[in-house]
Design brief:
Rossmann fold; alpha/beta; about 190 residues; 7 helices
């Protein structure tokens, strides 16, 4: 189980300012709940989209928030000015490695290609035994339903063993996610071969 000391959630999510309003409403709630449930946060370090809202709400409610942002993105003026710590990296690969180092828990809220790429790298690292931390898809508004159907196609065609379902958890709400984290017990992961 996750120990009682304050843990850090790595949040992957959208940086778009052009989403339907429901995703921003969700972000306000999610960021607030990160702090109110006693967690800190590490994320991509910007002020935009869901990322910025979640960070702002976590900060307002007492969480320590660390941002990790590549030089190129920081040069666009998107670096969050109020974080406890901002780490500027050379590129996206270094950013992902740094976020992973700081994180005790990994969560993919709704997001685009960057979110998919980040959470899948973490998922594969867990599959290969590089870590055994919680990996969660936060399936707000059934956002990940099509992906889950694709996962079933992967299992049905034996591209992955069915027991790989234990690598990740699908939570429909932040409350369900926090309950999973509180009761998480790492399982031994069988090698894929």
């Amino acid at each position: 189980m996750i120990s009682e000391e304050k843990k850090t959630i790595c949040v992957y999510c959208s940086s778009s300012n052009y989403l339907p309003q429901k995703f921003y409403d969700f972000s306000h709630k999610f960021g607030r709940l990160i702090a109110l449930n006693g967690y800190n946060m590490v994320y991509g370090g910007t002020t935009v989209g869901m990322m910025g809202i979640i960070a702002d709400e976590a900060l307002k409610n007492g969480a320590k928030v660390t941002g990790v942002i590549p030089e190129r993105i920081a040069s666009f003026g998107l670096k969050h000015p109020e974080l406890a710590q901002v780490i500027i990296t050379k590129d996206m690969r270094e950013r992902k490695a740094t976020m992973e180092k700081y994180a005790d828990i990994f969560v993919a809220a709704p997001g685009g290609f960057g979110t998919f790429e980040e959470i899948f790298e973490i998922l594969v690292a867990k599959q290969l035994g590089y870590h055994n931390k919680p990996v969660i898809f936060l399936n707000f508004d059934n956002y990940y339903e099509n992906m889950l159907r694709m996962f079933n196609t992967v299992y049905e065609n034996k591209f992955a063993k069915e027991d790989m379902k234990s690598l990740y958890y699908i939570a429909d709400t932040p409350e369900e996610m926090f309950e999973y984290i509180r009761t998480y017990t790492p399982k031994e992961i069988a090698l894929k071969w």
